[in-house]
Specification:
globular
């Protein structure tokens, strides 16, 4: 699965808390994180 959203915080169990495009809040315990092309761009 691919989850797209905005990082909110890290919860008490050290999971990423993400708000998705529909406004739902999801917690992610493990997985690969990609910050997009802007984060990968060389200056």
């Amino acid at each position: 699965n691919v989850v797209r959203g905005v990082f909110e915080t890290i919860d008490e169990d050290c999971r990423f808390v993400i708000r998705d495009d529909e406004g739902s809040v999801l917690t992610i315990a493990a997985g690969d994180v990609h910050f997009g092309a802007v984060a990968s761009a060389r200056v």
